[in-house]
Design a protein that fits this description.
The chain is an alpha/beta fold and 282 residues long. The protein is 33% helix and 18% strand.
């Protein structure tokens, strides 16, 4: 059993409302098992050295990683040959397969979002995607492209816009849409913050949502249902993510998981249909 009875949680942006719910679930699950929680808002430049400092000095027994910028491939040696690394990763891209993980079905969820738009009759679809930290494209972008192609829709490179998961990225995307000669009729954004920024700017540009442009987000943050109009989105089960990641980590710390086979949990994210999606005009 760990000596510190403390786990460390690494978050990319503690001010993002998406992570506040996860953090509450982590604290509740850890407290129920008799563990305290330390929060790190940003990892150091050398994660192996940083983890060695906390884990090997017994200041923390394990690490929950919600920050995909951590290069976990350099951490395998910390566990030793006979032990499982006391680390559980959970973020919006596929982590190192040798690392324990609790994930949302990002690619499949993106396909559900696109299928909803196609079922409404949309044929001109745009995606505002988030930044990727891997060499492979973001999983939500991959899902968008797969379902778009499966529906037989023509690709348009102008309708694939990079973002950074902020409202500012959504605002910038709205400005680009307004300047287009041929506009999409529906937009799937990589998260709710970009969707909210996009819709807010569309309103300023006198582009009606969903009358002229349907918008669907990803996450279902608390404000999504109270936004005007209420946001259609993919709901990530944040409480389950935080709880399962924490319980899995503590089981590893306490030796309840035997062998070297990593923990891999994939949660299905349901589509929540509200008022920002509708059939295309005309």
């Amino acid at each position: 059993m760990g000596a510190a009875r403390t786990i460390l949680i690494a978050l990319p942006n503690i001010g993002n409302p998406f992570y506040s719910t996860i953090l509450q679930a982590v604290v509740a699950a850890a407290s129920a098992r008799g563990y305290a929680v330390l929060v790190a808002a940003r990892l150091s430049e050398d994660p192996s050295r940083w983890l060695s400092d906390y884990l090997l000095s017994n200041r923390a027994d394990g690490l929950l990683v919600f920050d995909g910028s951590l290069n976990t491939t350099s951490l395998h040696k910390l566990a030793g040959d006979a032990a499982m690394l006391p680390l559980v990763a959970s973020y919006d891209e596929l982590p190192d397969p040798q690392v324990n993980s609790v994930l949302t079905d990002n690619r499949a969820a993106a396909r559900r979002a696109v299928r909803h738009l196609v079922d409404l009759g949309h044929r001109r679809l745009m995606h505002v995607h988030g930044a990727t930290r891997n060499t492979a494209p973001h999983e939500r972008l991959v899902g968008f492209l797969e379902e778009r192609d499966a529906a037989g829709l023509e690709p348009n490179s102008e309708w694939i816009i990079p973002g950074d998961f902020t409202m500012s990225a959504g605002i910038a995307a709205a400005d680009r849409i307004a300047a287009m000669r041929e506009r999409p009729t529906a937009v799937f954004t990589g998260n709710d913050e970009m969707a909210i920024g996009l819709i807010s700017r569309l309103r300023e540009l006198d582009i009606d949502c969903p009358g002229q442009l349907s918008v669907i987000g990803f996450d279902d943050i608390a404000v999504a249902r109270h936004f005007a109009p209420p946001l259609t989105t993919i709901r990530q089960l944040r409480e389950d993510i935080g709880r399962l990641a924490t319980e899995g980590l503590i089981d590893i710390i306490e030796g309840r998981r035997q062998g070297k086979e990593p923990l891999h949990v994939v949660l299905e994210s349901p589509l929540v249909v509200r008022k920002t999606t509708a059939p295309p005009a005309g």
